[in-house]
Amino acid sequence: MSPKEKVILGIDPGTNMLGYGAIQVTGRKVTMLAMGVIDLRKCGDIYLKLGRIYERVRGIIEEYLPDELAIEAPFCGKNVQSMLKLGRAQGVAIAAAISRDVPIHEYAPLKIKQAITGNGGASKEQVAGMLQRMLNIPQESMLPYMDATDALGAAYCHYIETSRPELGGGKCSSWKDFARQNASRISGQTSTTTVLPAALLKKRY
Prior knowledge:
This protein is of the alpha/beta class and 205 residues long. It has a single domain (5-190), classed as 2-Layer Sandwich (Nucleotidyltransferase, domain 5). It has helices at 46-64, 80-99, 109-117, 124-134, 146-168, 175-181, 183-188, and strands at residues 5-12, 17-26, 29-39, 68-72, 104-107. Strands 3-2-1-4-5 form a 5-stranded mixed sheet. A hairpin with a 4-residue loop joins strand 1 and strand 2.
């Protein structure tokens, strides 16, 4: 029996720059399919931005055909207007996924950092560096925008969260608990990456 395959799309919402990253999971092997950003900085009207986010996210979904969407929750900061804008961007991205019947999972930034690095207070650069090592991403494929790696981190975080029961054989309340139960597997696990053209992915719609 061939290993079960699934595609996870990660989204880091934003009204100026929205990040996305897609991974393919085949058994315990994880490969990066794509990561990038939707640059909205030249669009001055907020409602036009939201419309473009909806259209572009739908296009990404139609290209990579994800089985699940992992989206980063807006950070609860002091700037109410920024929170409102992020919430709108997140809502529109979620609506695009709903329109294609893609299951949605939301993760707080701290949760994603904890899952990827083991430290909820890690910097964006540390998250990007860890993902590059875990997925063996060539330096030339790394983007200067942390929004893209943040989105990839959301997708990988969801992979870790949904893999816990399968890997650990029991419930884990935290990454530390998961690591303790699966120390040998974590230390010996390797991942490879290939950037696959969307045409090779099996059409589901």
